[in-house]
Structure prediction request, 324 residues.
Amino acid sequence: MTDPFFHPVSGFDLPRFAGVPTFMRLPHVELDSQRLADVQVGLIGTPWDGGTTNRPGPRHGPRQLRDMSTMIRAQNGATGIRPFELVNCADLGDVGPNPASVEDSLERMTRFYDRVVDAEIVPLSAGGDHLCSLPILRSLARERPLGMIHFDSHTDLYESYFGGMKYTHGTPFRRAVEEGLLDPSRVVQIGIRGTAYDNEDRDFAKSVGIRVIPIEDFHARGIEDVMSEAKEIVGTRDTYVSYDIDFVDPAFAPGTGTPEVGGPNSFQALQVARMLDGVNIVGADLVEVSPPFDQSGATAFLGASIMFEMLCNIGLSLTGNGSN
Ligand code: MN
Ligand code: MN
Prediction:
């Protein structure tokens, strides 16, 4: 019997610093390749930060995440899961954005993801800034609204910036609710903190029924309690997972544009992703890694490690091995 899986290149065969970097050393499969039909989970880069309102740089995120993801091995050290033998995974490359146009970039991303969704591939994306989640949701949620588990220190629910700018990395989920891409009663935002402009985002969350779990509650209640509530909120129906690296304390993830102190450490950052087992994950992203602020590469390495944890649970979800 031939092996149906694309395997990552092992560090036993080729040193991990050698070779052309792809996400987790997986094969690169172009969207127009015949091999696309064999792919179940597509790792995709969205190298675009045209929605960034403060310190930029996530346009360089996918390349550094690919580089640091060569540190990832095939087996989860904590759970023993070997995701690359559960589902067939490949690096589908990058969306080619337009750094000079927000609207055109959003359209390009949606067109790319439409092809991924048409091929029935679950996307695991690497940003890019958080506005990249909106065009992804436009593809993934075109048939029905999704639930969402959202890790972030910000709600990204603002109405607009700079007098009417509706598309920034502070607004994607406001747009997604307005466009019917998310079912707000099945959305939970975890880790919210920092100084605020005002209460507009939280008032909106309350008015539509989005559950916001501030960092004070996260630390007081503990991870298991918070994650079990999150899983109850999204239930067993189709759910998106969006993970902003600024959820993590800047001591552990300094390489991001809008850091907020008082967050989880890197171990807790992995734990919340590991506790997504049983969630029916139809897509996930890891956004806002900004390599210019990531001198050691530690932020990108953490980001790649979080992507691996999410990938393990996507594998469980696709093979029906989750706890639900
Ligand atoms: Mn965000
Ligand atoms: Mn954020």
Notes: The first strand starts at residue 41 and ends at 46. The mean pLDDT is 97.
